[in-house]
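Course assignment 3, question 2. Fill in each field.
Student: A.L.
Task: Predict the tertiary structure for the chain below.
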Amino acid sequence: MDRDESKVVAKIENKRSFRHYIILGVLVTGLSFALLMLPKFWPILLAITCVTAFTIGEMLSIPFINTIVVKRSQPENRGQYA
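Answer field:
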């Protein structure tokens, strides 16, 4: 995890449930793919917007998905799946 991403996650992780951030991140990521279906009037602007939305969606969802996976594992086998 990048340092900047961990700062963002640390700031927001205790404000709402993990489920909220996972759902929000998946929706933003889905929106980024939906934006690719728009007419290509300004392809560079559209590409930058899609990449930004995809990045934000991943930063919101992936760390919290990993946290849930780690919390569900047993202490004696934690990390063996990675």
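Instructor remarks: The first helix runs from residue 3 to 12. The chain has three helices and no strands.
Grade: pending
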